[in-house]
Amino acid sequence: MHKLLPDRQPRQLGNSDISVSPIAWGMWRLTGEVAAATALVHAALDAGITLFDTADIYGFDAPEGFGGAEAILGEVLAADRGLRGRIVLATKGGITPPVPYDTSADYLAAACDASLRRLQTDVIDLYQIHRRDFLTHPQEVAAALTRLVEAGKVRSVGVSNHSPAELGALQRFLNLPIVSTQPEFSPLCVAPLYDGTLDQAMAANVSVLAWSPLGGGRLTDTGHAAGALLAEQGAVYGVDAVAAALSWIMVHPARIIPIVGSQKAARIRASTDAFKVEWDRERWYAVMQAGTGERLP
């Protein structure tokens, strides 16, 4: 029976000239001392992870506050100028507490400038609209993103938490490609399989970055049916349920890039165990059904 194995090779970020790793490291929980953050950055690089994903909202519910995660990473990059050239730096804008969302042209221009300052860099490799602002026309968003690219502040653009229709509407007004989309995806959240997100991505060569690939940690619980199956599959290859969960995501033909959210160096390094886990269709679909609690027709 044909086996499915994650592709460990770097790949292009959508229709861009940017090469990225098949696993990303996310910083939504990055907090604390710069020295500790530096160790995590090096752990990711040691694991071959080059795509680093953050957002201006990260840190809002931590002592650092709005922009905190970006600021910590910026301090890490400022302390060792050689690091910046080794990573693909992705961030997001558009969530504006206490007002939910704002992607108006003026706001995006200011938000991007603020991210650049906090990150202590001249350019953001991937700038993503974090969530859809229903009160801004996609033509205005497109114009704002175009200006950021033309100004040299942003190399490429993407979206997060956008439906296929929302991505399509934005792309309609853009003369540059949307290179990535970032949905929640795991055996516990399979909506992208059905709502057209993954199909659109494959058809248009849009990279898929999956957030919460471990289902908020629930998939590491062997008391959950899907977690038990993942642990069982991982054990066959001498790895844990985390590696199996990442592998489960990565064997999809959209070549999904899971965003590892751990803030522990050992766990970041261990994410590459995902490349050891093979799947056949029977086991892959068994995990899907256990995750959703619904039998396929």
From TrEMBL:
It comes from the Bacteria. One of its GO terms (cellular component) is cytosol. It holds the Pfam family Aldo_ket_red. This is Predicted oxidoreductase. The lineage of its organism: Bacteria, Pseudomonadati, Pseudomonadota, Alphaproteobacteria, Sphingomonadales. Residues 23-287 form the NADP-dependent oxidoreductase domain. One of its GO terms (molecular function) is oxidoreductase activity. SUPFAM superfamilies: NAD(P)-linked oxidoreductase. PANTHER family: NADH-SPECIFIC METHYLGLYOXAL REDUCTASE-RELATED, OXIDOREDUCTASE YDHF.
